[in-house]
Every structure is written in C-alpha cells, then in structure tokens.
Amino acid sequence: xxxxxxxxxxxxxxxxxxxxxxxxxxxxxxxxxxxxxxxxxxxxxxxxxxxxxxxxxxxxxxxxxxxxxxxxxxxxxxxxxxxxxxxxxxxxxxxxxxxxxxxxxxxxxxxxxxxxxxxxxxxxxxxxxxxxxxxxxxxxxxxxxxxxxxxxxxxxxxxxxxxxxxxxxxxxxxxxxxxxxxxxxxxxxxxxxxxxxxxxxxxxxxxxxxxxxxxxxxxxxxxxxxxxxxxxxxxxxxxxxxxxxxxxxxxxxxxxxxxxxxxxxxxxxxxxxxxxxxxxxxxxxxxxxxxxxxxxxxxxxxxxxxxxxxxxxxxxxxxxxxxxxxxxxxxxxxxxxxxxxxxxxxxxxxxxxxxxxxxxxxxxxxxxxxxxxxxxxxxxxxxxxxxxxxxxxxxxxxxxxxxxxxxxxxxxxxxxxxxxxxxxxxxxxxxxxxxxxxxxxxxxxxxxxxxxxxxxxxxxxxxxxxxx
Length: 468
Known about the structure:
Distance between the termini: 48 Å
Protein name: Two-component system response regulator HydG
Organism: Mucilaginibacter gotjawali
GO biological process, one term: phosphorelay signal transduction system
Strand order of the largest sheet: 2-1-3-4-5
Number of strands: 16
Domain Response regulatory: 3-117
CATH class of the largest domain: Alpha Beta
Keywords: Activator, ATP-binding, DNA-binding, Nucleotide-binding, Phosphoprotein, Transcription, Transcription regulation
CATH topology of the largest domain: Rossmann fold
CATH superfamily of the largest domain: P-loop containing nucleotide triphosphate hydrolases
Number of domains: 4
Shape: globular
Helix content: 40-55%
Strand content: 5-15%
C-alpha cells in the first residue's frame, strides 16, 4: 500500500483529504505543521507528500528543499491557492512533481497523485541512484534505469550505445525509431541522464492516447475558466519540462492541426497557455519516438514535413529483439532477476529447451513481451529452473518458417549452395541490398538512392528475395 503524508495547517481540509485518499486505497498520515511533518518523515517511509504552500511555521519552498535533501526518493506535490501559482511553477522546477490549486477537486487530486507515484517517483529514484554513484559505477548511466533496456554485447547493441554516447551531450532533437516494445522511452531517458540536463525534468508524453481536443491542453496547459470544464489552472508538458527533456512517444498519431501548433512552439521556443496572453520562454530538448515510418506519413499527407525536419537533427534506430543475437538470453536473465526480486522466488536458470525456444522465437512484442513472459514463467515455476511447460503456448509451440527471412535475417542460413553464376549473383544482390537497408535503418527511399535504382524496382527486388 502506498503511503502519503499530508502537511496542511487547515486541519479540516487535511482530514477530508485523508478520508478521501484512504477510501481509494492509500495509507495516509496528516501533520498540521512543517516541523511535525518532518518528524513523521524521519520515522516513516512515505512515497508522496502533499504539502500546503503556506504553513504556520514555514512555507512550501523550504519544505521542498528539506524533503529533497533528506528524503530524495519521496515525491512532493504542492497544495496552493490561485495567487501562489507562479511560485508553484518555480517549485516544480526545483523538483516538485506538480501542484494542486484550492478548492480541491477529487478527480484532479486522485489523477495527480496516481501519476506522481507511477512516474515521477520512479524518475526521482533514478536520479538518486545517479547522484550517489561513484566513478566505478558510472557505466550504469549508459542505459536507462527502468529495467526495460539492457545493453548487450551484440553488434547492434554496441552501435546503439555509441549513438547514445555521441548525441547525449548535445542539445540535438532526436527521433528514435523502432518497433513497439523495443524500449524507445528507455533509450530517451538514457540520453537525458547522460546529458547536461540530467538533473532537470524528464517528462514523457504518450501522443497515441491524446484526442484532438485534449492535446492542446496537455501540450501547452490552460488557465482556469479558459473553456468549459477548465476548473483549475493546468501546467502543460512543455512548461513542466522547461530546462530538461520532453519525450513525445508515437508522435505520428497527432492530428495535423496539433502538429501545426507544435511546430510554432518548437520554432519560437515559446509557449502560451490556453486562455493566457503571457508567453513563457522555453529551453527544452525534444526527443520523439515512433514505430511508424514518418517519411511515408509525409508522402501520404499525415505528417508535416517541416515538423519532421525540426525533429530530425539526429535519428536512432533500435533493432528488434530478434536481431540482437545473444543479447536475448542476457535480457532474459536480467528479467529473471527482477521477477525473483518482485515475487520472492529463487528461480536460477532456463532449461536448454527454453533457451533454444527463446533464441528462435520472433518476439513480436520485443523487450516488453519478453519481460512479461519471464515474469509469468517465474510465477508458474515450482523448482529452480524454468521449463517449457511454464511458457505460453504461442511461444512453446512456435516453429519458425524455413523461408522466413524478412524480419529474422540474421538467423537465415543457406542450406544448399549451388555453385553457378546465377545463384552467386542473386546472393551478392541479396547481401548488397540488405547491407544498404541496414545502413539507412530500412529507409527504402534512401536505400533506392544509394543503390541507384528507383523505389519501385527496390520493392520488386526485395519481394523477389523475401526481404520485407
């Protein structure tokens, strides 16, 4: 059960808020002064503090400083009156997750608290680990700390690490491309944590879940009363990320209208909340992720070409799990350790049959799918070794088609070599096309230009040699 500490000198407000949160499954403690609140923090492990900005013996700024210094893993949300919003925004830049304005609305409170515990608490934990690391452990900064992306020894992993190290110290906007579940947000967070902005906010935003009506408010924020349903002032994601990094996942799903508004903000580096006339200067690094081909979206009129070029100062392609060779079992072992810790189990290995199955399986859901499969198998395993019976049927019964080259290219082996010129020419053409496609991250337009053929011819040749 998540533990929350409410610090508010308005006792009735604190009690009502405590009852509401208790009914929603939280363990709640209340304190009427900052001094009492710090004593409670000293004697208890709290996930989150809801702190009123104006207290009898101190204020929100001092409380935030003290909590961040002494209890860096505890998230902080500031409760404030409308007149203190400017200060609340400053507190967010100092490390508070968010603020809530009075009067308090139950849905807003619950939504803010849930997000704080699920996202910001994890990020604070990452930063704490980073700040406490010594020289011998700084290699850990080369990867994201959320357990979804683990650097391996394959050529693809080494190249990915090289690109992260190359672009991280810059202010370049980055496009991260890869299939769903490959760990794009983890790579984005790794770039952020290895950049000069590492101690500033990292704000992630899922563009795939945004409606056209909601997108503007989420990006830019709004003032209270600026439209029907605007019951409180909301800070947008751009403003929340100011000084740090804004990560936009599945940006290709945004409407054309929102793309235009986004372009203006990126170009001018200014943001204006809905219903406000005041412009706020921005210093935000933008990293976007997509599992779609944005250039095809441009050709079909779904994505703005000018916005694409604003984002595409540097691009990174994350290879699918099935193309990472021996890293597959490295990841499996990593997730096994996490599952053992989570479930209190002591499963130590995978049977040889499971290892062979994992190496041959296509992993359409990539790293995310593997994590779930290993967690499930760890739960079902009675001994100390995961066997085939603990795997889902779609994995244990999987048989890779003999001629399936397209997305499992590195496992393709020529079973029969015919020593004739026609066969040699086809094999040479296959290798050349494949090499160029990899170099340009399977961008077919660029590949056709390099190969000095038109796009249609490239498609026909790829189809003839079973490259998809």
